[in-house]
Amino acid sequence: MKSYQAVYQILSKETDYISGEKIAEKLSLSRTAIWKAIKRLEQEGIEIDSIKNRGYKLMNGDLILPEILEENLPIKVSFKP
């Protein structure tokens, strides 16, 4: 699993703000890596709110990254025309 996917999963399970430091501790990554993952998620269209000294919060938590959905499907589906 890529770091941005792991960050997304953590954010999707939180109901309140979580600091970059706590996310970094959970994933054994640097805060810089977390910041880059947050930016990647935002580029993917995921809305994340950030408040200084509070952390990050997923704003549109009902979205699922295609990669995460694909990994968790019980069967693989492919379409070949």
UniProtKB/TrEMBL annotation:
**InterPro entries the record matches:** HTH_11, WH-like_DNA-bd_sf, WH_DNA-bd_sf
Q: Which Pfam families match?
A: HTH_11
Residue ranges constituting the Helix-turn-helix type domain according to the UniProt record: 6-57
On the tree of life, the source organism's domain of life is Bacteria
User: SUPFAM superfamilies in the record, alphabetically?
Assistant: Winged helix' DNA-binding domain
Which sequence ranges form a coiled-coil region, renumbered to this chain? none
What is the official name of this protein in its record? HTH domain-containing protein
> Which organism is this entry from?
Streptococcus pneumoniae
